[in-house]
Structures
1.
Amino acid sequence: MWFSRNAVVVAVTLTSLVLCSPAVAAKTKRERYELTDEEIGDRNRFWKHAVTEQSLIHDGVNHYHNIQGCIQNSMTEQELKDIATATSANRRARLMLEDEANGYVHLVVVENAIHPVHAKAVQSLASCVRTFLPHLYESRAMYKEMDLDEDPGLGGNCPTHLAPLVGVFLPEVIAEMDKTLNVAYEAAGWQQIVESDAAEEDWPRSGKLYPPSQVGIRASEHLTYSDFPALSDHTDGDATCYTMNFAFSGPEDYEGGEFFIASTDLKKKRKYQHVKPNRYEAMVFLGGRYLHGVEEIKGGHREMFSTEFWPYPDAPFGSNLWSNFPGNMEQHIRACNLEVLEGNTGPCKAEYSKATPFHDSIDEVVSKYGAKNKETTEQIPKSEGLAAADIPWKGVLSLRDFGPYPKPLGGINRAKADRERPNRVRPSELNPAKVILQDREGNLYDMDDFFYSAEEEPDFLIPKNLKVGQMEPIRWREDFSPVDGSDGETFVIGFPKELHEEFTKYIANNGMMRVAHRLLYKEKEFEPYEQRIYTLDDGEKWTAMIQGTWDNDMIWLDPGDESAFESLLGVLRRGGFDKVLEQVGKTFDLDGLMIQGVGAIFISENHKTDNMHMDIPGSRGSFYNIIVPVHIPEGEVSMFKLADSEDDATGALKLDPNVGVVLGGESRHGTGECNYRKKEEFRLSFAIYVADINDANVDLIASDSTSLWPTEGDTFWFQAQKGRLWTRDGKNSLQNDQGRLPLYIEDDSEECATMDKKKCMTDLKGLRLLCPKTCELYLEDDIYYAKYFPNSERRNVSKPASCQEDANHPTCENSATA
């Protein structure tokens, strides 16, 4: 297995830490202001203990084995072996862009920069991080990072922060990244800049360029752009020597979205050059010195893996891009070096500062983000009488160029004024006696008549009587704003009464409640990632699992194969769920809807809501989770938590069997506190996952790994379901369902023909997945249509000539396309 203790020695490029010589030890902390290479130490010094101790602590919980196991489960055995041996052949510089005014290359495009299996490993790591460490994912608006009150159109991106986790879990990827950086460094001739900067004795370390052997990772991010159409001009800060952006999507995967970088031409005019890299290429550029950004993305999915290198060790776990500036790192290095002098031979105990420069000084903001002007340099900020035209422009915006920036004017000290004049007459508070609200369509709502009272629903405004299919946004009671913003996707919806009736009959007839009670109170507790299969009274197979290490006993039951899945669609069809699908499709302006899965979620005890999460980050506008409460213990309540996407404010609402909660793929939610164990009771909700599948998002939606079926990454099944149950033109609906497209399913191992079929129930991650036909994970087409849709027009769809979803899939040539 590639998670070995020896992994910590891979990609160590800084000089080893040496603090024992008398010359160094004799210096005081004040005298040693400028750090030497020896004092800086190895690049992995602040995280190597995570590997040797197999420890990754966040909020008192060790997530090392969670992340490790998650990566292993998300990749095949062959892929795991390939990670250790694969390397990209024929790395070379395909394109180089030059700064005309300074006469040197500032960007290199390296082709074959990363092997596909390493790209998948990074994607798997990012997905696992979002599952177990959701705080490391953010929707990052640039104007907020610049500490502005409003967005002037600067855009942003959606990063999953991976520093230093790539080094901890994927050291082979780090080694390959180093090779790509060296290719770019040699091709661009950046050694000349390194030598020139070294001669500038008055420049701090953070302002100089260093060779690849002397840089560590400041930030490493898996990037999508689902919340933002663009990313405006910015630099990555003086401290960043090199920025390396790997393209995980190809130019055909998105419209627009060109990367741009600015320099100056021979006439001292701002010049913008554009690049749209191929999949698995890397753009390596001087990100700390040159303005760059992303043009408007007009459609599709843009996915990048971006890393910033700086002349310090890799940033420690728990830090972030905004706290990783030179002052914090140098302070941390000195504190840790003092610990070494005092005899500490283990991990540094000093806490890495979480402070950022942006709230302390506007100079740092100017240094990082510069100005936005794609024509000339005339709008670069001025400082103390120095005209922009007089600035020695060399493609870099930094403190060295601008000098001190004027401080903002101070405000009124209200607290002091109130102390000096305690008898001042103040405005009296006004409390509204009656509140009438009006929505954008002009509809009026009397709060007392339309919404539950504050005693019934303290946190949110929830309508009292929803009509069937009526959708209303869930709003904060305190200010009437939608819980996840003005363009949010968190709603309540009215259910047909038949839906609850059908689910109640279904779980009574198949014995699901008895099985759930046995799992919660009688059987041995689940281990993380353990999965079991149960056959219910109706003969259908269901898989059982727990979700990670959340502090509760929640158990998920999911259909174990296509037969169980189709039986659930029958429940939804009889329960009038078509009215729900139609309203969801129209409300979110979708093209079509399929149902990805229907899972039963049981829980008896939860003392702390620490499981706030998103279902599929990056799936905004295409994936929705509809919660159907089915069983709540008599005399008890079932609480559900929702969080603000901006400031983590969390509130609770009471689940109602007749009211559904509609969550977007990026709606933050979690399980409320409960304890029904004295009664040996539990609550049950069904989660119905619906998706608007298209070529751009099918890989993302199919990558969900929270159930054994449909099997993770089986895009051919998703394509066969595209728009099956609702389309905006009215041709498809749940009531007029014609079934999926033909799959032409085949096994992927010769062993399947002679295997003991009992292994389909025991070897869940081996032969069960290799033998989808023999194990009947997907029904053969003649059986499928004869059983469910004997009159379907879809059964006559011809076999495709080639597979468009995944040319490497084992059943590719026999898989249906939509």
2.
Amino acid sequence: MLNFKKIITVTIFLVYSSYFSQNKVSDEWNISATSRENYNGVAMANGQFGIVTDDTPLRHKEVILGGVYEASPENGISRIVKGIEFLNIRLKINNQEIKSDNISNWQQTINMQQGISNTSFDFKDLAKINYSILANRANPFAAMAIVEIIPEKDITISAFNYMNVPDELKDAKKNFRVLKDNEFLMPVFGTSATTLEGKYNVAASTTFLFDGVKEDLKYVNQEVGFTKKLLKGKKYRFAVAGGICTSKDVTDPSNESERQAIFALQEGIDKMLERHKNAWAELWKSGDIQIEGDIDAQQRVRFALYNLYSFIRPNSRQSISPMGLSSQGYNGHIFWDAELWMYPVLLALQPDMAKSCLDYRYDRLEKAKQKAMIYGYKGAMFPWESDDTGEEATPTWALTGIFEQHITSDVSIAFWNYYTVTQDRDWLRENFKVLKETADFWISRVVKNTDGSYSIKNVVGADEYAQHVDDNAFTNGAAIETLKNTIRAAEILNEPVNPAWKEVANKIIIQKKNGITQNYDGYGGQMIKQADVNLLAYPLHIITDKIQIEKDLDYYSEKMDKIDGPAMGSGIMSVLYARMGNSDKAYDYFVKSYLPNSRPPFGVFSESAKSNNPYFATGAGAMLQGLIYGFGGVELTDKGFKYGKGILPKKWKSLKFVGIGADEKTIVINN
């Protein structure tokens, strides 16, 4: 009998492969779309906020504010906040408004190298329009939309900036005023609002930038703009520039957002653009992956890196949610997705960004200790879903919030791994209490068995289909790693070593049956949501025997849910098969880690083969780990990165890592 689930998987795989192949160009830095069917936008983000592209001319879909949370009446928990849509433009030519249904030759290109979305289209026989949008990488609260018009005839244009306020903001107030300092006149259009529960104030301000003579701006129906006659064939360019701020970051967001507009006004279009491009150039210089011989893989890898880099900033003390700054998916909360799936990529290529993820957890350590106390444990128990408060933010109906406790180990392991890469003892001393408190949690959490071994009972596993289980493989393995890492750190720092850390680390159960490591006590071969046992071979160091790794790999690769399972499982399988020397299977799983989950027209990641919730940055992290820690032969040891010879798919000529590790090495693997 045919396997119906396999048929569905193949169908989805082919459909989205077709969508993506029809809409891309063979350029390692640019992805273009000419079809607006089933459109999924891309976040033009700078680590502070994200502006999601739209297929409608001269507007964007939404703005996502990083690290800004407010209670959501819909689900009873916190949710990341949408911001004011402040760069929208209403353009009329000869008194005819440009709309989605009266344009032709639409094309949109994502320039990953520069972090810019470029859209072009024709408006009847009157003009050709180019429209670019960016969230300024150099100025974290700033953004700009640039419009270029090439008249096909003599025309009159009317361009007005308007701002949309999402439903989750209230008490919106708009104003337009012309500020003056000596001879300088500075027109500023602003909108301010508060979040629904009044937790934060949000403000956005804009102004117009012109290449030549500044146009007189008018404020009409809460929109600001100008009217101008253009001559046939004479290119005309202007921009709407400004910023968006919240009271989370600054005391007076209205004033600061106005300063963003004024700064842009004094700098001009080209200088603001140059600052942005230079900031992105520095990022790529310090962390890039280059594939020779496979333009499709190169595009997708760069797109994954672009999105990860877009969603976080060094020194921001913020982490990354599963959907980054692309949507309110998973309420913008921070999960193990940050530490286990995205952080290892950042640690290798952008360690300053990786450190920000750790700073986020360090700042919330006291709340993790409070959670442990609430449930009768010692040490620190990190929340499964975390927001700005550091308290548990998981919906109360979800068992993961109380019982998916491996998150505590995921955090601790990430801290230790940062030390192994940097070998910074001063940093380790400052952050040692995170390791100590997480180790103390597991000492209070384990149960001693009659034979002297230790169990961890009643948990939700990394395989979340496994609820209320005992001795889950990954939970137990990660606890072992946490305890052993804490011991190593204590010895390096000459700190006291709790004898219980050693005893429990050496006696926590990892169960086997018929030569296979067991997912949990009593596991009977059920379908699993995602990799669990296999994580003990990578990224943990619990199972190191090659024969055992291969047995577990072959067994559980057939147990993973191929329809609803998230993308991360295939990424892990790719890493492990590469490490086992099987480049064919490693490549198959590498492709499976992204292609079935790619959505039109740019190939943005969705969480699973049949879901439609892009952009799933977690999946991008897993795919990139397949490159770095699989094909690339990179191994993270207690002494830092170790570089093996790697192994490449047959079709790749070479794989190059630029700026890997704290010393920013360049590594090349040739086929």
3.
Amino acid sequence: MRKNKFCKTFLFAILCVTTFNAQQKKSLWTIEATSTDNYVGAPIASGKIGILPWKEPFSVQHVMLNHVFDIGDAGVNQALQGINPFHLEMLVNQQKVDSKSITNWKQSIDMKKAIHSTSFTIPGQAEIKYHIAALRNLPYSGLIEIEIKALDNINLQCLNQMDIPGGYIDVKNRLVTANVGLDGGKAMILQTEASSSKKAHNVVASSEFIFDRKKVTVRNENQQKNILEGQIKKGETIKFSLVGSVCTTRDFNDPKSEAEREVIYVSFLGTDRILNEHYALWDELWKGDIEVEGDDEAQLVARSALFNLYSNALENSRLSISPMGLSGTFYSGHIFWDSEIWMYPPMLFMNQGIAKSMIDYRTDRLLAAENRALSYGYKGAMFPWESDDKGEEATPINALTGQFEHHITGDVAIAFWNYYQMTKDKDWLMKEGFPVLQKIAEFWTSRAVKNTDGSYSINYVIAADEYAEGVDDNAFTNAAAKKALEYASQAAIICGKKAPEIWKQMSDKLVINKMSNGVTQEYKGYNGQMIKQADANLLAYPLGIITEDAQIKKDLAYYSEKVDKNNGPAMTFSVFSVQYARLGDADKAYAYFKKAYQPNQRPPFGVLAETATSSNPYFMTGAGGILQAFINGFGGLDITENGIIQHKSVLPKHWKKLTIKGVGPERKDFTVTR
């Protein structure tokens, strides 16, 4: 079964690459689909809600809510699907418009404008196109714009009702009318309010048609359905919109009123103004861009990765990004090391506002991390492996990672220090950064143990390679702790504090072992077992502990043969690509770059799954790894105490030029040419 599954996945990847290549004659900002075969939808998001359009006419599979949790079937907090206000059905001449009744179906994602578009023909009756936006300027709202050109005289009905996911209780449907000065008419707002299953939150969704009252009318049916209807003459074109908003008690004391206000806001100002504001915010985001000359497929891969990370985060939100972002409920919407080690670094280079929100997430949950350390007999702050909205451990109890995958605490420290290195914001370091770094250092001093030879060990952990459970002196865990202690010591000096001597002593003497063949040993007793993902290799990049080219090559050659070929996650190969690019091996760098995404792409939009054989897109972590291959590998960029530097690197043979635009606080451009 696994072999067959892998073959199917490989064929999917080929289809997806073909789709990407087909864009060459069109736009390097647009990904287009003309077939629904093997279809996997591409999410769009605003940083607060995620919308998943699908292949059937007007279909939206679900709406995800960012950091809105309730207890799920696994007994831990799980991110909620929201009430979906974007459910639409269309009838033309009393016949439902569905996949069987249409031709010339086409979908596209305009990454420049963050718009998902669909068009099709109802033979002999109408040409229809619609666009979906998760509004950046109104991040709890989305907008669907619909245009219909009649090919004959037609009778039109468009039905909107709420799609309520399973598990909601105390459901209340209502019709809200409001006088908002719309040509003398009243707004008819469809609204549903419900509680999540364990009543952690109330969720309210509102929707409203925005339309020309001279062309069509809207009526309500049983307070559960709004119906837009009218007669359209042959050759006539009409346009109308549906605006929807989803608000919860996580973010609003009165989500009911706020959900109403947001749809009224759009209907009063008009969709043109709202969309222009949305486009302007995306223009600002795209000041951080990656341009590839000579490889259109790579260009689309770069922009797709950026588009998805930008979509799933929001400046000033004080929220981070889950491994699957707002694409679905995979990994329950929790925050892992994926955030700090894989997704945060490219955001730190390309958009410091988003990067700041990602570390604000940890700052706000420091007290929870301190309580967790206390609960396990340690000092300082011990961050959870899977963090829920309160910053408490949310790993399902059937996994030991929640108790033992401790490198996450070092990963948080690395992210904090890199933010200071990038921004040189001393005021932030003193008020927010150092207090976190200090508590993390205190944790490691209580977690590590001193050996008889004066060295220090960290025993019984789950490695970054999660196939290694209950091991001692894991290379990455010890290295992450080493960097955390080192950075805390440096931060103390900058802040005018005296760092405890044990911080430097322990950092200098934490054990990192080698095997008899000279390869960095993943953990004490490791002797060649299959690994899930990169671990010891991470000491070269991103940690910068191993710097000798010969050692880096030796470790790469050894561990690249040990990675699980079927179930290893995408980011392993992106970090291999970074290291080979810096070593000057363009062929291997490019081979691993392709391996980081091609087997994981799913047609028709190239959305990323976690592994070559999995079906859980969109994998935001993989997007972060791909971007590091561009920025830190082929682009050679790095953060140091002297700010951003550019290492000597190489490009794939067919790339003519790589430009990384809008980097750092000064928004500089960095270029690599052949």
